[in-house]
Design brief:
55 residues; 2 helices; mainly alpha; flat
């Protein structure tokens, strides 16, 4: 049986949950819960890792 869920504690699960453009607001909210008020994130952008860029 194939599982329908992923584990957010794994690298794959965390990236699937927070590492996509559609989930940017979720990532900002998550990080702002961890950071002190004077270091809150207003916006962020995703960059393509060098290993994923075309040659």
């Amino acid at each position: 049986m194939i599982s329908k869920y992923f584990n957010p504690y794994t690298d794959f699960g965390f990236k699937k949950l927070f590492g996509e453009e559609a989930s940017k607001d979720l990532l900002v909210d998550f990080l702002n819960q961890l950071l002190p008020p004077q270091h809150q994130i207003a916006e962020l952008s995703f960059k393509i890792p060098k290993t994923c860029q075309p040659r």
